[in-house]
Amino acid sequence: MGSTAAQADTSTKTQGSTTAIVVTALALFSMFFGAGNLIFPPMIAVQAGDNFWPAILGFLGTGALLPLLAVIAIALSGANVRDLAQRAGTVFGVVFPILAYLSIGAFYALPRTGAVSMETAITPLFGVEGIVASAIFNIIFFGIALALSWNPNTIMEKLGKFLTPALLILLVVMIVVALTKWTASPSEPAEEFAARPFTEGLLQGYLTMDSIAALAFSIVVISTLRFRGFQEGPALVRGTIYAGAGAGLLLALIYLGLGTIGRIIPNPAQYD
């Protein structure tokens, strides 16, 4: 009787751990997938033309694999990016995290996210533009983001259970519709992609900033899994790595789909 109860309890814990990892992986995917992630793959495909595969593989190297490696690095090295950076020295351990947070925040990623969201969602639908309209939109946009992320222990659940599934459904529908409607052939590659498509793909993938963002996002992943009952040590490390791997796989699949859209889009020269 006691053995049966123990087995049932173990099974419940295993199911709970798996669910927590899946939800966290979905949430991490949505944290990675921002403005540049939507734009870069189809643009690379348009510019790469016949050199699509080396270009997109390069992009996946720094846009999906490198963020996964960053998550693994944080999981193995300690609780945050400073623990990792301090291995290169005290000064570097202070300067690098500051620059990393500024680059994925006020200096680069946040302005890009606000600008792209405004230009792709608001201006085409409502015809509003300009500094005042942009300021109002960004206050509302980032206010909602702040409200959703106020509690770090629940943000992953909100993203993983609700927002990410909706995002994935929209992305998959968009990709499927494009694949069923368009059959255009790839064009000639742009100059830089004709000479070194893989290298250009690597550079463009790095510009998503996810490899740097992963160093910060991993802290949220570790905190969430710890909150969900993962014990310090191997269990927490494995959970973090599994969540990172799940997010990386989703990124790679979506990037391939978006890249295919750019590869078959009619009249690609107008987007070059």
TrEMBL record:
InterPro entries per record: Brnchd-chn_aa_trnsp_Livcs (IPR004685)
Topology term for the membrane: Multi-pass membrane protein
Cell compartment(s), UniProt: Cell membrane
Keyword terms, alphabetized: Amino-acid transport, Cell membrane, Membrane, Transmembrane, Transmembrane helix, Transport
GO cellular component terms listed in the entry, alphabetical order: plasma membrane
Coiled-coil portions: none
Any GO MF annotation of the entry: L-isoleucine transmembrane transporter activity
Protein name from the UniProt record: Branched-chain amino acid transport system II carrier protein
Taxonomic lineage from the root: Bacteria, Bacillati, Actinomycetota, Actinomycetes, Mycobacteriales
